[in-house]
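Lab notebook, bench 4. Still working through the backlog of constructs that have no structural model yet. Next entry is a single chain of 267 residues. Request: give me the C-alpha cells for it.
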Amino acid sequence: MKFDFRGAALKVNQEDFPAGFESSREARIARQRLGTALEQGGESGRRLAYLLGNCGLGPCRSAACPTCRRHFRLWWGSEISKYVAIDPDYWFTVSIVPQDLFFAIGELNRFNWDHIKDRLRKQIARNFAGDVIAVGAFDYALQIFDDGRHPKWRPHIYLLFQGGAKNQIERSLGRYYPNDDDTPRPIVVTPQRTNDEDRIKTATYSFKSSFYQRVPIIDRRGNADTEKRPLEQAQEAELALLLHRQGYLGRIIRYGRDDAFPLLTMR
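Model written out:
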C-alpha cells in the first residue's frame, strides 16, 4: 500500500480509541516476539524477521509487523468511524465464515484471497441494488478439534455493511454460506451501535491485530462453545508469512464508491 498511513496515523486522536487498543510499547514487544518465532521458520522466516527487526524510525510497512499494523489500524479505524458517523443508522456488522475455506497447518500459503474477495463482491452485486458500502478485512483463527482431527486454519470475513436490512443481508448472503458441524453459524449480522465508543471499536475490530486458536469448551450452562488461546510460535510464524505476502491491500475488503469516503479507493 503506497498511501502513507503511518503519517496519517500520527494525526489521529488516540484518546478516542478503546482502552484495549494496543499501545506502541505492546506493538513493539509483539514485533520482537514475532521476530524470534520467525527466526525458526527457514529462510523466508529469517528474511521477514530481519525486516521486522529493522522497523524503527523508518517503517518496514509489512502487514505482518505489529508496529506498522498498529499505525494502519489507527488510520483505518479513524476513517471508518468518521464516515459511519455521517449517517450512523442502518449499519451492520457482518461476520462470514465460509465452510469450505480451511487449511491444514503448514498449508496456509495456499490461500487465494483474491478469489474469495471477487466471489464476495459478485454475491453482493447480484443481491443488492443501489449504494451499498461494505468495508472490512480477512481475519484468521486456528480451529482446534476435540475429536482427534488435526487443527485447521479458518480464514473468515468481517465487514461493516450499509445497504440493506438485517433480514435481507442474512437471507441474500446466507444462501451462499451453508452451515456444517464445524461451522454452525457461517453468517452473523448484527446492527451496529451508533455511539462513538462502539463505532471506533467496531472499526478497528474489522482489521484485527491479534490472532488466536479457537478451542472447544463446554460453558457453565452446559452448551458447546469455544475459547481463545494463544497461537504457538510456529503458528504465529506461518500466519505472519501469509500476512506479509498478502499485504494491506490484499487483506482489506472494500465494496462500493462514495467520494466522501476515499478509503474505498485509496491505494
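Notes after review: The mean pLDDT is 94. The radius of gyration is 18 Å. Flag for follow-up if needed.
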